[in-house]
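Exercise 7b. Backbone tokens:
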């Protein structure tokens, strides 16, 4: 085999690998963008409430796609129980703090109607000295900035 033939083969293989690499990067970027947009809950900055209560359940929503699965709590407040939506499962599970049944917490968020049910879309949760910020004052999710909250 001549040297020129070897160079042609290397160029063909290299070009194919470059094309596959570019396709892989494009797929990864599209997948991450889907995570950013998949989990959406209504948030109305004019309907902010602050409540204290006890966590009686921690659960995941049951949407069909992984990007849309969310974490929510059922919070017992005085004589009622209300769902408190935190954020997408992939984001909440990567945080340093988690909640469990029996935790006494304070929640700040937007009280809205979602799927014909009154819920609180949490922007901030406090438990003892821990504070978890999930959204800014306008409801923009922290997971859109791709960082852990403290």
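Sequence design result:
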């Amino acid at each position: 085999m001549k040297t020129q033939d070897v160079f042609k083969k290397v160029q063909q293989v290299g070009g194919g690998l470059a094309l596959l690499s570019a396709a892989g990067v494009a797929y990864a970027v599209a997948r991450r963008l889907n995570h950013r947009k998949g989990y959406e809950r209504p948030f109305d900055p004019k309907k902010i409430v602050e409540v204290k209560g006890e966590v009686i359940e921690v659960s995941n929503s049951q949407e069909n796609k992984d990007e849309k699965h969310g974490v929510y709590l059922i919070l017992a407040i005085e004589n009622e129980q209300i769902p408190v939506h935190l954020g997408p499962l992939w984001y909440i599970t990567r945080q340093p703090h988690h909640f469990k049944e029996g935790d006494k917490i304070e929640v700040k968020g937007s009280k809205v109607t979602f799927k014909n049910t009154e819920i609180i879309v949490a922007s901030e949760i406090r438990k003892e000295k821990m504070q978890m910020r999930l959204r800014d004052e306008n409801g923009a999710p922290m997971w859109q900035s791709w960082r852990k909250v403290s």
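Instructor comment: The chain is about 25% helix and 35% strand. The chain has a mean pLDDT of 81.
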